[in-house]
Amino acid sequence: LIPHLVARDSRRDFNEEERRIAWFLSKDKKCAICNNVVEWKDYQLDHLVSHNKGGKTELRNSQIVHKSCNIKKSNT
Question: Do residues 73 and 33 make contact, with C-beta atoms less than 8 angstroms apart?
Answer without folding.
Answer: yes
